Amino acid sequence: MELYIHIPFCIKKCSYCDFLSAPANQTTISEYIDCLEKQIVSKAPSFRGKTIDTVFIGGGTPSVLLISQMEQLMNCIQNHFVLAKDAEISMEVNPGTLTKEKVRAMVSGGINRVSVGLQSAQEQELQLLGRIHTYEDFLHSYELLRDAGIRNINVDLMSALPGQTIETYEKTLRQVLTLHPEHISAYSLIIEKGTPFFECYAEDEALRDAGEIPKILPSEEQERDMYELTGKLLSDYGYERYEISNYAKKGYACRHNIGYWTGKEYYGFGLGAASYIDGKRFCNTSDMSAYLMGDFAPQDVQQISKKESMAEFFYLGLRMTDGVAKSEFVQRFGLAAETVYADVLSELSAQQLLEDTGTRYRLTSFGRDVSNQVLYRFL
Ligand code: SF4
What we know:
alpha/beta; TIM Barrel; Arc Repressor Mutant, subunit A; 2 domains; nine-stranded mixed sheet; three-stranded antiparallel sheet; binds iron/sulfur cluster
């Protein structure tokens, strides 16, 4: 069983971000943490008898919390759930929001994995993204985490940024690799509707999607080169690509995310947080005023049918390098994957996008390069 806890606050909104997050004053943040505590206290009894394997405190920027707010949250989690002895307890942080004392409070609260949002090591790119920090700030935060004993650090990076070249991207990768983080997530920028980036780059993106050369965004070919470079360079440095965009040193794959990709149950606390329990998906209200008034009722409840559940098993499972186990499919759904997806599986195999290892199905390296086109075939 997994828990997700959403902290929807940031110092400033980044120009590309469409996550449920915004700047807020201290009064709102304090009220929010009180409500989060109430939601946890009211829901926790229904998890009696269940052990929590992973907790992920995400955002937003959870590291904007004051030490007292972090302590309140961590005490609440520790007091109301049974955490596995080796539970993975992650927190997302952003450079420029950590202090020595805060990191100490995180560690004593039980945080043992930290995900740092760097995105780029080039100042110009950081400014363009609207990030609040410099690379120097990142280095300082990284050092604070290591000094406090955090031995499991993820660094988030982004490629295909406006104006980014393969050279600037490689520079970022190499700078980060000198620090030897245990985990690196490297995603391509997606231009999301409703963001300042959409205003600036939607036309350029349309050019790229039409196969033409965009003016500012990297071309499709450059984007693919960046993706390939990530795989090659990180593999040279001993990282294993265990998911399309995630790389880890041996033993450091993110257990929380693997849970999502393998259909484990999770419960989300906080504004807009999603849950998957007893075959149902639902989320919390995304309306901050309603949440602060104590509206914790599940919204958009969706009973997942067996057919949808089987499709998700493949859609999410094939994101991982290991792919999906045939025996697990049988165990979960009572029939063989070949009987449900005979046509899709044989077509994808014939196109060399998918391979059958005998016990598992997994994407080939070509299949991973065009994963979006492959995965939707199961939906
Ligand atoms: S720090 Fe993260 S969550 Fe906050 S605005 Fe930037 S990208 Fe969005």
